């Protein structure tokens, strides 16, 4: 029997299988089994525990139980790069395969301590913090005994241009004083959220706009922080983590809470974002696979026979199923290519492929899940299926880490940089055509690929 006969590898293309280490193969199998046997059957229980009166902003007991099981099974912190002593040693490509499986349940990633914003925050703290900071702030995150939040977005500024971030960080003696408003940091009503990693403006008159901002660690129990409210996303409050709206009024933190140094926020932010975008996209592939399975089940449901035919017997639905399969499979290839590019050439070289993934996959996922809801009719819009929550998550990810337009701008800008070499190539076509026409005594006309003067 082949090591890839396990259902975890059913959709993984051959070129990816060839790059998987024995360790990765075993981890991928274990992630699949854990999600299928522990997480999916527990979805209704998890929802019921959140709904207990007075417990909505308390992490569910079942979540703590599953996190313990995942940790014991060696499925904790699978995303950690190789330089961590606790790292399982997975490449971006190998971890991407795990991410797809985790994505089949929205919160499965959390059972394995592989959820946002923790993954990005852990990598940030590990990459840029001092040994003392790591001991105090990173270690609890790695052990899963605390959670954190990333505080960057502001309600009064264009989020797609982070140089406009206006929350002020002012040094006074041995303290930094913070004043401003923030959106989207995880809800501090959940007592497990112990600190924010906050990006603010510390040097507003610096002529280099990329050096005006700094990043500091702000404990959630610091006086002066007010959670104005929890933000709902398309009507969902995402308890017990949520998305807070915060007011910082003369919030004081010690100078040792600054990360890397003043003016280094953009360096830190860019070091944090790349891999996390891939994680989001692969989890969305998993969501789509789960939605697609529900659509297939609906198509053969003998209780649903409009005009005496199964839903899957209508030509339009047969084509719909086929197109969904094609879309999911091509999307997976785009993300796996981005992960492999990062492994081979580094995160910076992979930014183009990362941007492609961030544009294509959330858009694809919203379309796929919407089609699945159509097959379920009115029932597909209710809690009878997980489809509405899946669609909301996909729509949210279209905005998370930057709107589509920002990523399209990056891709388009990079593509336009290649125009000159193509113009030169077409001028060479024209030159060769002219020489060939003269040699054969043919009339020379304007070549269809005439290049402009450059």
From TrEMBL:
Official protein name in the record: Acyl-CoA dehydrogenase family member 10
GO MF annotation terms: acyl-CoA dehydrogenase activity; flavin adenine dinucleotide binding
Lineage: Eukaryota, Fungi, Dikarya, Ascomycota, Pezizomycotina
Key words of the record: FAD, Flavoprotein, Oxidoreductase
Domain Acyl-CoA dehydrogenase/oxidase N-terminal intervals: 31-144
Cofactor(s) this protein requires: FAD
GO CC terms of this entry: cytoplasm
Domain Acyl-CoA oxidase/dehydrogenase middle, chain residue ranges per copy: 149-245
InterPro entries in the cross-refs: Acyl-CoA_dehydrogenase, Acyl-CoA_Oxase/DH_mid-dom, Acyl-CoA_Oxase/DH_mid-dom_sf, AcylCo_DH-like_C, AcylCo_DH/oxidase_C, AcylCoA_DH/ox_N, AcylCoA_DH/ox_N_sf, AcylCoA_DH/oxidase_NM_dom_sf
Location of the Acyl-CoA dehydrogenase/oxidase C-terminal domain: 266-413
Similarity comment text for this entry: Belongs to the acyl-CoA dehydrogenase family.
SUPFAM superfamilies found in the cross-reference section: Acyl-CoA dehydrogenase C-terminal domain-like, Acyl-CoA dehydrogenase NM domain-like
Species for this entry: Hyaloscypha variabilis (strain UAMH 11265 / GT02V1 / F)
GO biological process: fatty acid beta-oxidation using acyl-CoA dehydrogenase
